[in-house]
Amino acid sequence: MDIWIVEEKVTNKFIGNLGHYLRVDGEVENAYNLYAIGDDYVENNKDFLLEFLLHEKRYPLFVTFIVYDDQTDEYTTFLKKNKIEFVLNNLDEKRTYYDFRGKHQYHPPCFTARIEDDDSLALLLNETYWLPAQNEFYSISFSDNLTFESEEVIEWRRKRKRSIASFKIDGNTSFILIEHDGAGFYLLSNEEKYFPLTNFMSSLPKGTVVTQINDTVKR
Prior knowledge:
Layout (H helix, E strand, L loop, with lengths): L1 E8 L2 H5 L5 E4 L4 E7 L4 H16 L4 E6 L5 H10 L3 E6 L4 E5 L2 E5 L2 E7 L2 H11 L1 H4 L4 E4 L4 E10 L2 E11 L5 E5 L6 E5 L7 H6 L6 E5 L2 E2 L2
């Protein structure tokens, strides 16, 4: 598969541009932004993410995703049916939607699934990747390092309560966030196995072709 790689410094500006309220609690200096090239960019990037994780073979993985209010039963049934251990929490913040019956508010359902094997990983990713493609929160951690903290933020000059995804950096830590519209993913890590870039490239799945690094096209 052909991919692009962009090296990033993990700064407050970088975190603020990720599209969700996030906090990194600890030292993570670098990240990689990876894009798979192809006509169907959502499917291509889902496939590359799966290929990357299967190649890494690091379990358990902790996959956290937020669903819409009326999908709680659907995903609870799916996870139980496939014997995937999970925790379900409703976040403190409130979301609003409108239909023919009027205004509705709900606390977003947030699942964290514990993935122990290749088959469960493939099942879950294929079932849920449409969520980050719709810009819902979605993360994959190599350790159980994510909590949500309720805080007031300013949006459109008004105070609103929001749930901040807080990643605890304790020892060797890596986690993945999906790019806007599902068009790639970010790997944030403090692990030596991924840095410098030559180390990371040597750990990519066999058959991966890196066609561009930052602004340099590979020939």
